[in-house]
Fold this sequence. Notes:
Elements: H1 2-28, H2 32-36, H3 84-94, E1 116-123, H4 126-138, E2 143-147, E3 152-159, H5 162-176, E4 181-184
Amino acid sequence: MENKVNLKQRLTGVLILLVIGIAFFPLVFNAAGYEERKLESRVPVAPTVVQAVQTQTPAPVVIESVPVAPVPPVTEAPVVSAPVSEITDALDALRPSLNPVQDPPVLDADQVPAAWALQLASFRQEANARELRTRLINSGYRVYIRHGEDVVRVFVGPEMQRSRLEELKVALQQEYGLEGMIVRFTTQ
């Protein structure tokens, strides 16, 4: 008999919970929150295209002629006569002195051509390195700088032949008083 009473109480409890659930279900799940989240569109309405009806013919365009300033006659530049030997000597001085027979390009262990650079100076302040780089570039040298941990280094080059850098090293020491050292060029 106790089982029947227990079963009856359980069924009554389930029925009461079911009635309470049915009563509160529409209150909780009425989709009112969904309606509140609807946002209005902020995209403006596309403008309508109105074609204007042309009733009159357009006025003719008048182009005025503007007098052109006269161009002065071209005069020939004076020819400086210099002996041919002086001109060829000047051109030879500008030509790089490369001798692939005496100083052939070297391949490293990975069969990549070895390039060299001349490290001229190291500075703690980047402004000093930039100033030297600007002076050297204005003199016609190929110059770049690299940032180290505490210093900024100034390099000339790179060159494929070490002998060319040895000549540059002597020239830069005479011109700027900088004692450089030849190092292997790297891209890092």
